[in-house]
Amino acid sequence: MFRGSLIFTNFALKKDVQLRKIHLFRFASIGLVFILFFSSWLSSARIGSPGLDFFTKIVWLNFWLVTLAGIGIFSTAITEEKEEETLPLLKLAGISSLGLLLGKSTVRAVRIILLILAQLPFLILAVALGGITPLQIFATLLAMVAYVILISNLALLCSVYARRSGTAIALVMILLFFLFVLPILLSETFADLQSRGLIDSQGFIAQGVELIHHLSQQISVIERFQTILQVGFKESVLSMQVVSNIMIGVVAFFAAWACFEPWSLRTDAGRVSNPKPSLKTRLRNSRPGQMAFVWKEFQFNSGGKQAFILKLVIYPLLVVLITAGGMFLDGFSSVSFISSYSWRGMMSTSLLLLSAGFIVESTLYVSQMFRDEHRQKMLPLMLLLPHSLSRIIYEKTVGLSLALIPVASGILLIVILAPDSLLEMVDISWQIYIPLIMVQYVVFLHLLAYYSLVVRWGALAIAIGSLILLQACLTPFLQIMYFFFHFSIGANGIIMPAFYLSLISCVVLQFLISGKLRQIAAEE
């Protein structure tokens, strides 16, 4: 049984060994370790523990890349076969469900684990810099391997259940939210309500929330890293986080194996076309006019007039509910509480939520900019139109930008009504970095648009990972620029070079996007 199941896994591993790009990626990862090592060496005169600084950068970089791999790579292991309709062919070839799961998901997890373990000889260099011990290095690697097992198998379970890769990615993000974010939010919310005398601290609900928060801390790899990276760490490398992550991952894998056949059959038989036009389609009565691509992006990718009007209502209503609700809660609290819900604080919270809405909307729109034309193989016909490719891209950008007017108007209104809300959200020492953060977000959107043409799914995760790697590689260069110019121009010694490099990256990515569109059109 297991011999037949491991045939597909053996084939996937041999293919991985023969792929040149996999080896190049591993060498690039080792090169990134040396770049971060060089960065820590440059800052060793200003940092008391350069080894700990170097190791901390590597740890959190690995964490974010593994998390992004879980969102964009592990979650598409089975759904990509469902979308390409090759799952029945694999079954006809005699590949069992266990072999398919091992070959499609476990091999990917093994690649990531080997990539992490390959860093071990170079991480030992951190001991020479000082501030870190071999025990901390081995404990961190073991915690990271357990986290890879956890997230890869949870993503595999979501991939087995979902019919589309987008659904699987959304399910993985929801699971990560429940694992890492929701317990903290519940704990903070109930602590605030207890301080106001609105909830009994000894009640059943409060004890349940405290238990959930305690369990989440026990299985959280973030909490484990924070414990390991403390000076004087002497605990065992085998912790509750390692054991629980491996156990949950194994249970998720066997659950995916047990549910593979019924869920795959349900997926194949459940796809029924619905020729009846949707309400959104029936309500579109406008015509494109001369700006056809502007109209198309606004009507189809952003929801059209109905979504535009709905967002014009929802965003101001959200601001009113947060501000009025917080001040109302302040007025009826019976005892002294942790923090007051002032006008400026509530407006700052509203500004933060609207900024998050702007980021989510713009990210979603950009990832879908070329999706329909690419999927329906319409790019060759699009390039035959009597318009330049640059005009087509800019018209699409304008059409998507129109959909961002409601949330952008809400942000502008908050800044006008409560200018101090920005000071509440961002420390005054960080305000000079706001233009740099904005232009880097524009770079991220360009990366997302480019990767949406390169890969079918996971463009968001790859774009975020590329931006993180780019920031890590540029850190030594920015530090050298700071050493040269910080006496003459101060903090701008870092800000201005990074700002100009970001602008240049946007221009280069625009040329890459145009070239990729022409390449895809020629191949189709």
Automatic annotation (TrEMBL):
Signal peptide: none annotated. The keyword Transmembrane applies. The chain crosses the membrane at residues 24-42, 54-74, 112-132, 138-161, 168-186, 242-260, 308-329, 349-367, 398-418, 430-453, 460-485, 491-513. The keyword Iron-sulfur does not apply. It comes from the Bacteria. Keywords: Membrane, Transmembrane, Transmembrane helix. This is ABC transporter permease. The lineage of its organism: Bacteria, Pseudomonadati, Planctomycetota, Planctomycetia, Planctomycetales.
